[in-house]
Write a structure and sequence with these properties.
Layout (H helix, E strand, L loop, with lengths): L6 E4 L5 H9 L7 H4 L6 H11 L1 E5 L2 H13 L7 E3 L5 H14 L2 H4 L3 E3 L1
Parallel strand pairs: 1-2, 2-3, 3-4
Length: 115
Amino acid sequence: MARVPASIYPDEDASVVVAAILRARGFDATIARDTGQLGRSDSEQLAFGAAAGRVVLTHNRIHFERLHRDWLQEGISHGGILVSRQRPPRDVAARVGRLLTRLSADDFKNQLIYV
């Protein structure tokens, strides 16, 4: 079976610059502004990412840890969550890019990963 690369969805909390850097490096990254998701709750952001088959990238650790736990307890799947500390966008993009190079979309499914 062919390895399907993961697609990234940085939420509003994550930098649009990170998405631009990832796109420039050939990764599939889309942001809330481009998908009409600005102003949506964290739960709605995760639901959008799940429906679109995307891994959500956020700096909002506390809310997304809770959402991850709640979704798994309820048996709801998501495409994965990457939580990053506030760092320069270039550093975040480099960390995320390394993960995207090594892991497939299936590897991210229902995972909470700190970058």
